[in-house]
Structure formats: structure tokens, C-alpha cells
Structure to design on (345 residues):
């Protein structure tokens, strides 16, 4: 009763496979690597790997979606710590600015006897045990918080030998942009990062995943439905879960579940700019180079976009990990892009 649970997994028993990723994370952290990147497209299972990993190693998990100001970050750190107080009591008792009373914990971030985020890292470091700080979807951080985070990561990199930062995100190019490893004016310039890529499941693994999930639920779909799903969803576990869950809940028509997935992807794509959407639509219709994209858009909208504009848009779509070399990284997004409504003026 777990594999088809749609929330991110956090226990080893409910996490299918991912031996390699957990093993790599474990050895990088125990070797004392200061900065680890965990990258993979949307729904590939990053958060599940990270949360499960933190059930074996001391650490704090922060989802950076919706974190705008430093106060938001502080609130999420405090929330995580309170939810896992049993494990943190030992680490945090006696720390300035932290008061633990029974089952509740309060961290004072401001005013008298307070502690800063960096101060907290220093205290955690002093405990002499490895401690991981996980920042998931870090590309959402905006200035000035993004710069503060880079400084904190660089400071920990240089001075806090027991702290490992694990940075994760689905918009892979945007995560790299956040770190600014190639920018001489960035505090993280030239640092070494240990990168771990989260890959899609092979066909065989996808099949095994679905069979195991359905067995848990006591449902036995026809072989054809399973083959259709593993063919279409291309090893992206989040979609396999959506398929499994929907089927178990009574949706027995594959094309219905497929539409559900496409609709979900479409909602995300609709947040893009009109130009980005127009380019995606062209790529979804088979364009493999910029001049084809330009012609497609000219035909649809009567507007001839300059090459420089197109390159910029294509570059951005690659950084968002939606396409790479004019191919979609996720077939569901490709189908959704065919249905995008775009207006260009
Ligand atoms: N190894 C796994 N075994 C079972 N279920 C998994 C596994 N990995 C991910 N899932 C499921 O797939 C879905 C997506 O997983 P998760 O949220 O961890 O991915 P993600 O890469 O963090 O996605 P996003 O980019 O949207 O944040 C969830 O429903 C989760 O429960
Ligand atoms: Mg996630």
C-alpha cells in the first residue's frame, strides 16, 4: 500500500529501486563532499530520493518552491525541525536561539539571543557529525535571497567541514544558473560539485514498477494497458504513479488517463511566455532547427521572429529542461505542446 501513493516517498520500503542514486548520495556525503547536485526532469523522483535519503542521514530538507524572502526559508527550516524533533533534539539542545520544550521547538531568528541561518549551520557543524542541508527546487530563489544562499553555501564549503549542501531541481539549467559556478564574481566560482543525475526507468523497470504497484493494490489490469502506459510515459515515475493510481481508482480507459496527464502538463506550460509556447508548439510539430521554428511561427502567426530572439527562447526552454536539441525530454509535454494556444503580437 504505497507505490501508487502520489505524494513524494520518504521511506525506503515505499521507494522503488533508486539504489544507485541513494548509494551515490550516501558515499558523497560520507566522504564529506561539501556540495552535491541532484538533477532530473520533473516527476522523475528527486524529492522522493532526497526525503528517503534523509531517513538515513542527519539533515534538513527545504522545498524552495514559494520561498521568496529569508523569513520563508527560516520558517521552512523551523517546520522541518519541529516535524523531526526526535532526531534534532540532540543536535539542537543548548544552541543559542533555540528553545525546546517537550514536543515543541522554537527558533528565534531575530532580536535578542537569536540565531541566523548561518549561525545555525555553524552550530550543526560543531556537533562533529555529518549533516546535510537539502535545498530542493533551488532555482526558485530570487535576489537577495539567492545571493545570501550562495554566500552561505560558499561559507560552508570553505569552513564547515561537516556540512554538505545538496542542491536539487527540475529546471536543470536554471539550477546551474543559480549556482553561478562559472561566474568569477560569484562566491561559488570554480567550486567542485558532485553531480548526480536521476534517470528515467528502463522499460523493464517501468513494467516491474507497475506490476508491483498493481499487486499491492490487488488490481490486475490487462497486459495491453500496462504496455501502453510504459510505452507512452517513457520511464518517468511520476506519470507511472498517476497511471497506476487513476487505474486503481476506476479509470479503466488508457486514453482518458493519458488526457489527464496531458492536461496536467498543459497547465504548467501555460505559465510560459507566448514566445516560449509558440516555439514549443513548433518543436512539438517536428521542427528540428531554428529556421523551421521561425517558418512555423511565421505561418501560424504572420510574425517573423529574428534568429537572436529564437535562440534566446530555445536556450531558455533548454534551461527549463523541457527540450534538448529540439527534442522533448518528456513525451507528455510534447503532446501537451501540440495543444498550446498561442497569440503573438
Ligand atoms: N522510486 C520511486 N518509487 C515509487 N514512487 C516514486 C518513486 N519516485 C517517485 N515516485 C512517485 O512519483 C511521483 C513524483 O515523485 P517526486 O515528487 O519525488 O519527483 P520529483 O522529481 O521531485 O518531481 P518534481 O520535479 O515535480 O518535484 C510521486 O508521486 C512519488 O510518490
Ligand atoms: Mg520534487
Amino acid at each position: 500500500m504505497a507505490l501508487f501513493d502520489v505524494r513524494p516517498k520518504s521511506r525506503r520500503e515505499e521507494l522503488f529501486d533508486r539504489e544507485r542514486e541513494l548509494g551515490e548520495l550516501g558515499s558523497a556525503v560520507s566522504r564529506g563532499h561539501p556540495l552535491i547536485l541532484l538533477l532530473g526532469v520533473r516527476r522523475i523522483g528527486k524529492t522522493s530520493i532526497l526525503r528517503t535519503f534523509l531517513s538515513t542521514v542527519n539533515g534538513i530538507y527545504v522545498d524552495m518552491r514559494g520561498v521568496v524572502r529569508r523569513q520563508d526559508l527560516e520558517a521552512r527550516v523551523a517546520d522541518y525541525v519541529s516535524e523531526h524533533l526526535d532526531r534534532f533534539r540532540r543536535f539542537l539542545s543548548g544552541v543559542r536561539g533555540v528553545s525546546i520544550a517537550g514536543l515543541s521547538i522554537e527558533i528565534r531568528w531575530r532580536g535578542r539571543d537569536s540565531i541566523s541561518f548561518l549561525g545555525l549551520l555553524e552550530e550543526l557543524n560543531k556537533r562533529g557529525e555529518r549533516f546535510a542541508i537539502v535545498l530542493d527546487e533551488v532555482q526558485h530563489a530570487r535576489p537577495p535571497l539567492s545571493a545570501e544562499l550562495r554566500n552561505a553555501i560558499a561559507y560552508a564549503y570553505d569552513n564547515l567541514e561537516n556540512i554538505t549542501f545538496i542542491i536539487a531541481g527540475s529546471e536543470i539549467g536554471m539550477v546551474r544558473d543559480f549556482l553561478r559556478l562559472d561566474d568569477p564574481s560569484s562566491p561559488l566560482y570554480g567550486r567542485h560539485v558532485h553531480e548526480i543525475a536521476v534517470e528515467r526507468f528502463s522499460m523493464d523497470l517501468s513494467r516491474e514498477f507497475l506490476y508491483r504497484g498493481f499487486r499491492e493494490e490487488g488490481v490486475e489490469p490487462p497486459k495491453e494497458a500496462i504496455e501502453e502506459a510504459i510505452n507512452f510515459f517513457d520511464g518517468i515515475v511520476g506519470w507511472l504513479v498517476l497511471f497506476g493510481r487513476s487505474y486503481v481508482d476506476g479509470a479503466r480507459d488508457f486514453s482518458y488517463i493519458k488526457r489527464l496527464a496531458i492536461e496536467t502538463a498543459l497547465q504548467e506550460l501555460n505559465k510560459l511566455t507566448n514566445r516560449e509556447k509558440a516555439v514549443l508548439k513548433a518543436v512539438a510539430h517536428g521542427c528540428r532547427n531554428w529556421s523551421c521554428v521561425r517558418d512555423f511561427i511565421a505561418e501560424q502567426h504572420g510574425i517573423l521572429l529574428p534568429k537572436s530572439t529564437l535562440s534566446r527562447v530555445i536556450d531558455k526552454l533548454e534551461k527549463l529542461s523541457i527540450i534538448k536539441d529540439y527534442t522533448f525530454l518528456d513525451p507528455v509535454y510534447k503532446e501537451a505542446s501540440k495543444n498550446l494556444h498561442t497569440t503573438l503580437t
About this structure: The chain has three domains: 18-197, 203-267, 269-338. The chain is about 50% helix and 10% strand. The domain at 203-267 is CATH 1.10.8 (Helicase, Ruva Protein; domain 3).
